[in-house]
Design brief:
Elements lengths: L6 H8 L1 H29 L2 H8 L15 H5 L2 H40 L3
Helix pairs in contact: 1-5, 2-5
């Protein structure tokens, strides 16, 4: 940290690992929720039929012979709860957390520019 003279910059840089830790936690929570949703979808829905209907790359793939309907998944309270948790977590992070991370990055960059004499 002797590269920079600014104590404020040194403090911001030394506390950066704590900021990254919080970002990692948010992203891991979203990852966990996403895979829980996928797991429910694979257990209750019909992924093959969903891909065939929605993705042009899968048009040559024949529809599934299984009668499972994706509506069954949409009627499942566990699926709904996981989707709501996922959306709520994304909204919380985007509204209350990530703007602060962006502001901290901008502040650190401004301090670096100031310390280097860049205008």
């Amino acid at each position: 940290m002797d590269l920079f003279e600014s104590e404020e910059l040194k403090n911001n840089l030394s506390s950066w690992s704590g900021v990254i830790y919080k970002v990692r936690f948010q992203e891991q929570e979203l990852f966990r929720l996403r895979y829980q949703i996928i797991d429910i979808g694979q257990n209750l829905g019909n992924t093959r039929n969903l891909f065939v209907r929605l993705n042009p790359d899968f048009k040559e793939l024949a529809s599934s012979n299984f009668n499972a309907s994706n509506l069954d998944m949409l009627r499942n309270v566990n699926f709904e709860n996981e989707v709501i948790a996922y959306v709520a977590t994304i909204n919380y992070a985007n509204q209350n957390y990530y703007p602060n991370v962006k502001d901290k990055i901008d502040a650190i960059l401004a301090l670096i520019d100031n310390n280097l004499g860049v205008e």
